[in-house]
Write a structure and sequence with these properties.
homodimer; about 450 residues; alpha/beta; FAD/NAD(P)-binding domain; seven-stranded mixed β-sheet; 19 strands; about 25% strand
Chain lengths: ~450, ~450
């Protein structure tokens, strides 16, 4: 199969942000793409039914979208966040810049992003989109798939032949579930103790944001936390992360009275701004948080997992979709590099992407603890201050882990994680300096850290 | 439900060694037990069709079987192995005792063990055994299960109501697969790079063993190995562990010629003793090696996983079935301790057993490397020698990890693993002593190790 073969056909299962982006990439590389989605066209629906946790995009996403000439359009749908604003339990605000004044996370509605990417996929001549078609069966040897039209009665299967199939069907991937029947398929799904629900801070009477809209707001409370991300319409989408059971937990918050005092005690400043929080916490079903790891990602060089289907992770680093966009960008580069030879492209894709997805997946888990504790733990804050100062003194010697992950698309996640671990060990040594909390601004501290860095490089 | 309730009914899925043992325990505790097995009664079959890797039993198994008054009978079916015999590539033999002359692993055929336990289960008045009944559906709220008789046409479902259900249905557990549909079920299955096939060394013309029958024979070859376990009939069952792909691997050994030179090169001493090895390696399907970890083990205090269904592990520590027998023994103790209150028994069972199964599962993985390398790595052998000498000097201060796992049923796996890790760190320090390979017998080495041990206890 080569690019000049007019019959090279690719099926994509799932027309979310990843499936749509991949469709654009493959169509522009001259493949005939059939893009299947089990849900209805979300552009024709009023209320969005799928996963709704707000998204943040950072440099890895922009790097992929730029190559498709979509960076500016998508940025126009997003709001840049230049800092974290930590809300302490007694209402104090602590501001932490993400980086320099050009480095931002971008808050965007999953729905709007998806609509935009779908419309661009639709404009590609070689892309055919099929909505409300549920994947029913998949032959892992031939990549022949059958889909069922959700509207027709009686149900009828439609067989789709293809040279390749990409599974971009998300965290609950049907393709991945079917793959469990293939030999030697290693698989894990792990649930966190925490679940989440979404709450809203509506716009004020003038349609304006009620909190600083250029910040990611966090109310860290050790085992649980609330975060808020701005929307274009003046509202904020808030996410409450809380244990499934224990105290407090979604199970223990079982009456209006209990919820009221929980909110008053922990989130007094934002409580009056939230839209109906007591009723929502009482009645909304909690959503689980889980991560998925699989091996292989590629089957018979015919079928490949991509995005959440390959590496569903917890949302705390804000990198899930960024990692998925990077999957797409690197796949695109491999198509060119290996001149459309899929016997080479797919093994290289797996070798390159899996290690990096594993790395960011692990970072995302440990970042939860970090965020939750950062308002409370003095030692943690002191570490950050020393790191930041050292970075400003020697920007070439030390980039904080968060910067490498979010704002350095040229550093693979795996490498960022490795450097981050080395940095942690060096900072452990620095924190052992007697009276470090008093002497941390003195020159000898930074000379010592410089020596440690230079020793390993 | 109490023991005096004549209606307290328990379903067990799977009549392998674990299901049969559990049936005996529960019947003797006055429960009505329905024991279901999807296969036919293996006592009526000529050739055994299921999993056949030979088993070794050690102290944890005996400790459980003794309580059921079955230790002596089962021991009569087994052969004690007092040592490892390492066969090096040039035909040298290195002997390593497992412990003192009473400490042995016991080699037993899975089939014979199962037959013996099944017959004892059958003798219990309160046990009903149902063969060729395949589990079809399970209600996780009520523990009502439906089974299909494999012999009847057309297939008919039979509903079995019960107060509790135990899943003893092995490494490929159907109950566990159905549990994947329950909420918040964490699950992982991981395949090793190696697979295995079984080969045979037949008895000689006089019906005698052709190798020392009181030893576990190992031909360690770094990434692959052969082992041999004696059978009562004079034969040995051998297992060849080899990579699935790569070189050498089951994929690369694809012609009689290649296999011939592979065997000649790596297993010259045993090659002439093996029954038709070239043809067997060429034609027998390889069996995968995988480990399974799940959470929870218990659902609604109505359904519980036990044995391989809960913790399928790789066979290298010879502890898979020993761990399963320990599951049974500890469950039995909890029934007594909590006076048949299953709302207490099952949470305690899970809390107690899962940490230990996780520990031995991890130990089993790392033991593979240890076995494979032990003939070749001088440093590894020196460590063992120092450990052994220290153990004989101070038996109360230091039990080798292998001894704790295999011959100390009173030390939980989790604790053994933790102590083993401390020992490893101490031995790392000892191995840093300059010229340790020359001075290892000198007194100061053992004084230093003694100081290290005393520091942490």
């Amino acid at each position: 199969m080569t690019s000049t073969d007019p019959k090279a056909k690719i099926t994509i299962a799932g027309a979310g942000p990843v499936g749509s982006t991949l469709a654009i990439i493959l169509a522009r590389a001259n493949y005939e793409v059939n893009l299947f989605e089990s849900r209805a066209d979300l552009r024709k629906q009023k209320a969005y039914l799928g996963k709704s946790i707000n998204l943040v995009l950072s440099d890895r996403a922009w790097s992929a979208l730029k190559e498709l000439d979509l960076e500016q359009e998508v940025k126009s749908l997003a709001i840049p966040l230049y800092k974290r604003l930590i809300h302490t339990v007694n209402g104090e605000l602590k501001s932490q810049n993400y980086g320099n004044n050009k480095q931002a996370l971008w808050s965007i509605s999953r729905n709007q992003l998806n609509e935009c990417l779908l419309s661009h996929a639709e404009q590609e001549q070689r892309v055919n989109i099929h909505f409300e078609q549920r994947l029913h069966h998949l032959d892992f040897n031939t990549s022949c798939a059958s889909f069922i039209n959700q509207q027709e009665r009686p149900y009828q299967q439609r067989e789709i032949e293809a040279d390749l199939l990409f599974a971009a069907d998300g965290a609950y991937s049907k393709v991945r579930r079917l793959a469990q029947e293939t030999p030697r398929f290693s698989y894990s799904q792990n649930y966190m103790e925490q679940s989440y629900i979404e709450l809203t801070i509506p716009a004020d009477a003038q349609g304006k944001h009620q909190l600083d809209k250029h910040a990611l707001h966090i109310w860290p409370r050790d085992k649980f936390m609330l975060i808020a991300l701005p929307n274009l319409d003046g509202s904020f989408t808030c996410t409450l992360f809380l244990q499934h059971q224990g105290n407090p937990s979604f199970q223990s918050l079982n009456s209006a009275e209990v919820i009221n005092s929980f909110l008053q005690e922990n989130f007094a400043d934002v409580f009056p701004l939230l839209d109906n929080p007591v009723e929502n916490i009482l009645n909304k079903p909690e959503n689980p948080l889980f991560l998925v790891s699989v091996n292989p990602w590629v089957f018979n060089n015919k079928i490949a997992l991509i995005g959440d289907a390959a590496h569903a992770m917890v949302p705390f680093y804000g990198q899930g979709l960024n990692c998925s966009f990077e999957d797409c960008r690197e796949l695109s580069a491999l198509i060119e590099q290996h001149q459309h030879d899929w016997q080479k492209i797919l093994p290289a894709y797996q070798a390159q992407r899996k290690v990096n997805a594993d790395a960011i997946s692990k970072l995302a888990i440990s970042h939860f603890e970090e965020i939750c504790q950062q308002a409370s733990k003095e030692e943690f804050l002191l570490r950050k201050k020393i790191e930041d100062k050292f970075h400003s003194l020697y920007p070439d010697l030390w980039q904080p882990l968060y910067t490498m992950v979010s704002f350095s698309a040229d550093i693979p996640y795996q490498q960022a994680r490795k450097i981050g671990e080395q940095q942690k060990r060096m900072m452990d040594e620095i924190m052992c300096i007697p009276n470090i909390s008093e002497c941390w601004q003195q020159e000898f501290v930074y000379n010592k850290l410089k020596q440690l860095v230079e020793k390993i490089t």
